Amino acid sequence: xxxxxxxxxxxxxxxxAGFGILSRLGFAPIMTSSAFFDHKMQWLQQHPxxxxxxxxxxxxxxxYALNSQxxxxxxxxxxxxxxxxxxxxxxxxxxxxxxxxAYHPDYLVLCSxxxxxxxxxxxxxxxxxGTWRFIRQHFPWYFYFNxxxxxxxxxxxxxxxxxxxxxxxxRGTALFELQGKPSSGAGSQRPDANAWFDERISRFEHEYRQxxxxxxxxxxxxxxLVFVQAPVEAFVGQNGRRWLQAHFDSCRSIVGRHGGVYLNxxxxxxxxxxxxxDPVHLTAAGSDTLTKQLVTDLERIIPPSQ
Amino acid sequence: MLFTTLPFLVFFAAFFLLYWFIFAGGPAxxxxxxxxxxxxxxxxxxxxxxxxxxxxxxxxxxxxxxLGGWLHRxxxxxxxxxLVGAGLSLTLGSLLYFKYFHxxxxxxxxxxxxxxxxxxxxxxxxxxxxxRDLVVCCLYIAFFPCLLAGPIDRPAWLIPQLESKxxxxxxxxxxxxxxxxxxxxxxxxxxxNCAAFSADIFAHYATLPASALVYGALMATIWVYADFSGYSxxxxxxxxxxxxxxxPNFNYPFFATNIAGFWRRWHITLTSWMTDYVFTPLNILxxxxxxxxxxxxxxxxxxxxxxxxxxxxxxxxFGFLNGCYFLPMVFRGRAKKTGGAAARIATxxxxxxxxxxxxxxxxxxxxxxxxxxxxxxxxxxFFIFEKVNTVATLACIVAMFIxxxxxxxxxxxLQIDGxxxxxxxxxxxxxxxxxxxxxAATKNxxxxxxxx
Lengths: 306, 452
Description:
The complex is a heterodimer of chains A (306) and B (452). By secondary structure, chain A is an alpha/beta fold. Chain A is built from 14 helices and 5 strands.
């Protein structure tokens, strides 16, 4: 038996050593399917913010549309943007609960578009947040082996992932490479937004339950939710007025029920088509317009003494 | 808790150390203590999936144990038939109910039900003795390396091993590790990648040329083989680490020269189980009909094998089609003839053809797939995603077949006893491990046979 155990040990040792070398060479473990989320979490491990009173979470709308400098300079609050691409509300809920436990903010801003209510939740975020924080912080190489990703995948992640740029408050900067380009929908055939919504009605209902759960949980933990309904391009509203209004009403009702603040910036006169990079994402100029509005509202919501 | 995941490796490492260092030894060599640990470990392993169904497993095991005991003690034929009937009603009833009338299928139900039936029928036929104690009987049914997808060991083979003292043998342990490594390679490099390729093609078959569909059918065939034989290799390897020899489930089926040979080498424990408990009685029943009776028995047997996989016409069609492959042999008496490479390739293609039914989500999809295969675009080019992964997987498939061909007289392809030089052996092991770590599929899929 000792001979067997010794030989097994000799066989396994180089495997661990190999991953140690990969780590040294900058091939970070894959924790979730989002390169941006993994990058942000790893960066945060190395540079944890000292204090976060105002926290932004959510998907690409929160990543890009919230101008960090404007928020920090006008509100003068410790702020960090923890949002990442391609998250559904259910994913945001899981991640936000974990982050609130870690950073204890007073306010949580969730800047949302209807696209965050349309797809299946990604179980990888649950796997990540379900892993003990101690392991996440001190033994990140655990993720090399948990939910295994091949070395080939590590190479692809390292060399093919792009657009991971962030400012010092976690805001993504890559979308603005699109600045100046026409809206993705321009000139193309517009889908019937009502039909599109009807096809996804069950997903929306699931995500409303997730939003309800998050709002209730934040209330219990004395964190004020500020739900920001981001603007969408005019054609979405024109082509799907019925469902868009229903969506706004649902979100307002859920957030309001749990003492949260609901802010709706759907305004086609203010957010004209030239401020959109695609039907839901804003250009840099559009983001600045949105952030100005938001900060003005936040100054009203957050007491000046804070 | 898949064999290929970190939680299982941690579970097994801890279990292995407890099993050999803490629970071995003591009275009677620690057999009973080890068995109790094995049973607790097996039930914990099962609970990891869904704790609710452990009661079904334990309850049925308990009933089978007592029925087996009574069956052995009673001398009256009427009582014996009654007891076997009760046991079959209970076990087959559970199987039929959950498999065909319930939305949730308890994992491994088809496999452990067959073990229970073997236990009762073999006691009835005096082929085996009942287990000495309840723990052994429950363990025969729930032995965790084989619980979820076999091999389906017979009681006369496994129960004596469970009742005897076991010692760790270095050669068996080391070979078990090699078999696990080979199974891991087949599962996570070949099967999981082929699963992704074939899934893409089956999902979009209506818009793809025939060449892509042929490629998809071949990928699906290799997927099912690599997945299930990879799982079986790992199950056998883990069993050997615990001191047990379980029945092999595959014997290089793609090297068979006819369909009968294929089925003698494919999912051996199920095929032999069906032969003993279904085909032979049917054949005896229909023997007066001559060759027609034999053909009917084969068709029924294979249709039931298909139906065993699930309540779907695709599985029925898969079984029936494979049964039909036997008919020329039955009526022309060509089963004993052997052929060379051409016969092997023809057998492989026949199996791949039937795998379209096995892999399809519905009968209409399978029929549509067949129609498009014969649509005349057999030599059209088609687009392949993830070229690096595809090329690596195809190279690994070729390597697998070469290794299995050269090692076809061994238990598994990595049994390289003939190579004495340590550096060469080390190169093979670390090379294979490197390939596994580098080209493992992105998505670690469940073992396909878990769903049956």
